[in-house]
Specification:
alpha+beta; 8 helices; five-stranded mixed β-sheet; Helix Hairpins; 15% strand; Heat Shock Protein 90; single chain; 12 strands
């Protein structure tokens, strides 16, 4: 009974048995009253058809033979004192002196005694009647119960088997098998639960894969500045280079920036379910103008406010500008802030650099990805644009890369406007 399908099945059978018993009780209690009324009405009808008790024996016998022939049954008519008046076919037994109401004389033989209003008794043989009537009803109810029980088992078993498959997949996922999935069957709540589990498992698998890739790439990227720092320290100790101190400071800054970006990427990934927790209304135009002034980028803008985390939004804008400065080939950086519709703000950062091949315009947002032709000495570790997209999505937006008309690259970020604005 620890199995769910057995408990559900037993519950179904228990309810079915209870309904059957209640139906039998209700039918039996109402059947007695209805039968008594029907028998009384039948006695009155027979008294109207048959000759009265004052009629001669011959007249009563002729009427009895007439109706016995029409009904194709045996009939015996007794007086109120129990004497036989007339009979058709075999003489049926009298009702007995103790009987006062209509009823069965011999239930097994289906012999019924009907008391007429004038005291006479009409005894008849009723084929296919007697106690088999109630038993037939009980039998029908029993057959219905058995049919429902047989039909309910595969339904209950199929439902719980799907739950067992889901349980197995959950246990497999918990044991570390991230590829575990459940087969979705039907469109009911269990199917929706299985679909939700599959989506969650896919998300967990993707997050774990991203985490492994992040750790692998981070360990690789950390080796370069650490190796240069080690070399600079060795040169300083040997006195071979006078600029080793400057090189050391540069590598430390690079290492610090790398660690900061890795930590920020991890926090964004871990806090994906906390979107909006620290958001406030921001003057997006002023923030973009400050960052553009810092790098000397040209800006054309509209007044726009958004709901967001000030630190993350500033990091998004700064990463886009630094990326354009790093890979723009010294070309001017053009920034445009527009309102494409009533609900969104569009930030476009454009340069006239070498551009990004179409096949790499999505991959460029992957952590630690470097476009072809990019050298390690160009700066950056491939996390800047990944952070741009992660921050944009945390704010309900998106980041895209496209070719700029006339040459170069255009990075576009869509963000939601503050709902307080018209």
């Amino acid at each position: 009974m620890n199995r769910l399908y057995l408990r559900i099945y037993v519950a179904v059978l228990s309810v079915l048995a209870l309904v059957t018993v209640l139906a039998w009780i209700v039918w039996h209690s109402t059947e007695d009253a209805d039968r008594a009324a029907a028998v009384e009405t039948l006695a009155e009808m027979v008294a109207e058809v048959f000759p009265p008790a004052t009629a001669s024996r011959e007249t009563q016998e002729a009427a009895l033979k007439h109706w016995g022939g029409r009904m194709h049954t045996e009939l015996s008519l007794y007086g109120d004192g129990g004497e036989l008046i007339a009979s058709v076919g075999d003489v049926l037994p009298p009702p007995g002196a103790a009987r006062t109401e209509s009823g069965w004389i011999h239930e097994r033989l289906s012999i019924f005694a009907l008391k007429l209003p004038d005291g006479r008794w009409l005894v008849t043989h009723v084929p296919n009647a007697g106690p088999r009537g109630p038993l037939r009803i009980a039998g029908v109810l029993a057959l219905i119960a058995v049919a429902v029980a047989i039909g309910a088992y595969p339904v209950v078993r199929r439902l719980t088997r799907r739950l067992e498959h889901l349980q197995s997949s959950v246990e497999a996922l918990g044991a570390g098998e991230l590829s575990a999935r459940v087969r979705v069957e039907g469109s009911d709540e269990v199917a929706h639960l299985g679909d939700s589990f599959n989506r969650a498992a896919e998300r967990i698998e993707a997050l774990m894969a991203a985490r492994k890739a992040l750790l692998a790439n981070a360990s690789h990227e950390l080796r370069s500045p650490l190796a240069r720092i080690r070399m600079a320290v060795e040169l300083m100790e040997s006195g071979d280079r006078t600029d080793a101190s400057q090189e050391l400071r540069k590598n430390i800054v690079e290492l610090d920036q790398l660690i900061d970006e890795i930590l920020l990427a991890s926090r964004l990934e871990a806090g994906a379910a906390e979107n909006g927790a620290s958001f406030e209304s921001l003057d997006f135009t002023a923030l973009v103008a400050e960052e553009c002034a810092r790098v000397g980028a040209g800006l054309s803008s509209h007044a726009a406010e958004i709901m967001g985390d000030p630190r993350l939004i500033r990091r998004l804008v700064r990463n886009l500008l630094e990326n354009a400065h790093r890979h723009g080939g010294g070309s001017p950086i053009d920034v445009a802030l527009t309102l494409p519709d009533a609900r969104h703000v569009e930030l476009a950062v454009c340069d006239r650099g070498g551009g990004v091949p179409e096949a790499e315009r999505e991959r460029i947002f992957e952590p630690f990805f470097r476009a072809r032709g990019t050298r390690e000495g160009d700066g950056g570790v491939g996390l800047g644009l990944s952070l741009v997209r992660a921050i944009a999505r945390k704010h309900g937006g998106e980041a895209r890369c496209a070719a700029r008309f006339g040459g170069g690259t255009s990075f576009t970020v869509f963000l939601k406007r503050s709902p307080s604005l018209p």
